[in-house]
Specification:
Chain lengths: ~160, ~160
DNA sequence: TAAAAAATCACCCGAAAGTATGAGGCGTTT
DNA sequence: AAACGCCTCATACTTTCGGGTGATTTTTTA
């Protein structure tokens, strides 16, 4: 009896299969006289067993097993103060609050490296005027008026290393 | 082309089915001469399409649809490293190697704070020209040509915070 | 697909930064 | 005392920055 209970599902599947085959066997003879009966028969089997497969898989791979993998992680930021040689991690939150675009951040980090507008323009393959525009916009967003100030603020906000 | 991309999966299924039917059709003739060929054929179809069904369902009813209902939130603490209030210690050795004078260091640190020459001059009660001279000299000693570079280098050398 | 946001470029102008050069005062070092 | 380094200041000149305005193109988003 224990065996029966433990393998309940398996037995149901087996019986279902047997019944299906039986039904198909019955149809087999009735359909033999019809044109293309074989194709129809094969198609029926295909369809039925596809459905069976779908049903089977939904039973077997029940949500439980799937969900354990895709549990949503809720990230809680916890401030940890450390010292020593910092491997820089961009402060995403602060970065977003500044409203800086990716390009502006790029320019900003090059400014911090001590490059002139012309040098930045060359290294990014754009005109100096474009860099000037970026610089002006980024100054506005950081609320500063000089590149040294911009670097200062950006470092304080952990936007650049 | 967009149609192709959007219905990629559908097309794959259709092609797979077609190929399966083709294979089965080929086997059909070869197996006709064998005893119980029909049963074997039907069985093969059944098996293949069961597998197809399983595969199909796993693709179609992807975790997404199931999980939205049973989404679980898992709280994970993520350490976020924040530039803590670093207690700066001047690198005496590096400082001496630069040959910078005390006054020059003073000017340098004000430059790093984002002050203009005029502002530095005012805060040190000297003329702008004096500051310019200091700046020029300190650039020479640090082997740079721009204040942003000077700040970069000085920070790297731990001469300024 | 229309609207919004980014990225691109240009031109002008004034302010700031940077270069070069010279020079006077002041304390220490030889 | 002469030499040296440092701080101070000035003048003159060049280059770079930064502000303002306007426009086009590309990308993203609603």
């Amino acid at each position: 009896m224990q065996f029966l209970r433990k393998n309940k599902m398996l037995i149901i599947y087996a019986v279902s299969l047997a019944i299906l085959f039986l039904l198909l066997k019955l149809f087999e003879y009735k359909l033999l006289i019809i044109d293309h009966s074989f194709e129809i028969y094969a198609g029926t089997i295909a369809l039925l067993f596809t459905l069976l497969g779908i049903w089977l898989s939904r039973k077997l791979f029940s949500p439980k097993k799937i969900t354990t993998i895709i549990e949503k992680e809720k990230i809680v930021e916890k401030e940890v103060f450390i010292a020593g040689p910092q491997h820089f991690v961009l402060n995403q939150k602060a970065f977003e609050e500044t409203d800086l675009s990716a390009r502006e951040l790029e320019v900003l980090s090059l400014i911090a490296k001590g490059l002139s507008n012309q040098e930045i323009a060359s290294s990014l393959f754009v005109s100096v005027n474009t860099i000037k525009t970026h610089v002006t916009n980024l100054f506005y967003k950081l609320e500063v008026t000089r590149r040294t100030q911009a670097v200062e603020k950006a470092k304080k906000l952990s936007i650049i290393p």
